[in-house]
Design a protein that fits this description.
By secondary structure, the protein is of the alpha+beta class. The chain contains four helices and five strands.
Length: about 150
């Protein structure tokens, strides 16, 4: 399994993985939602790849098997991120035919290594039921905070 960082040439692949993740996690999308995502995602990736967004892709024999989106954020420091450098993981997704073969684990370990080297002090994520064991096995801890959201749209 080869792990690499996505480039702007991979935008169509990243969109494919984003839709796969959303469909598995939230269910089928409406035509309006599909249209809106197809409008927003290419522009987002063009603007952010190479700056605050990295997608790590696992490939087996040149076939994309899994992806993790890694977003860096600088915040005002506190005791949990003393230098203000944090990251968020999103869209942790392995194609069904590659599941249970270590692709997500390999990507996650690479991200953790790269984050340490870059001085990132913490990595946050929202775990799905399926992904939670992967994160616990790799040192993530439940923080006890209750995730909340206010939808403004």
């Amino acid at each position: 399994m080869n792990i690499r960082k996505a480039t702007k040439d991979d935008i169509d692949l990243l969109i494919k993985f984003r839709f796969a993740y959303i469909n598995d996690d939230m269910g089928p999308l409406s035509a309006e939602q599909v249209d809106e995502l197809n409008r927003q995602l290419p522009d987002y990736f063009i603007r952010h790849i190479g700056s605050d967004f990295t997608a790590y892709i696992a490939e087996e024999n040149g076939i994309p098997a899994a992806v993790i989106f890694y977003i860096t954020i600088e915040k005002p420091a506190n005791t949990h991120f003393i230098n203000g450098k944090t990251a968020v993981l999103m869209n942790v997704y392995t194609m069904e035919e590659f599941r249970r073969r270590g692709a997500a684990t390999m990507i996650l370990r690479r991200i953790i290594s790269d984050a340490r080297a870059d001085g990132v002090t913490c990595i946050d994520l929202s775990a799905t039921k399926m992904g939670k064991p992967l994160y616990l096995k790799n040192g993530f801890v439940e923080r006890g905070n209750t995730e909340m959201r206010l939808e403004l749209r």
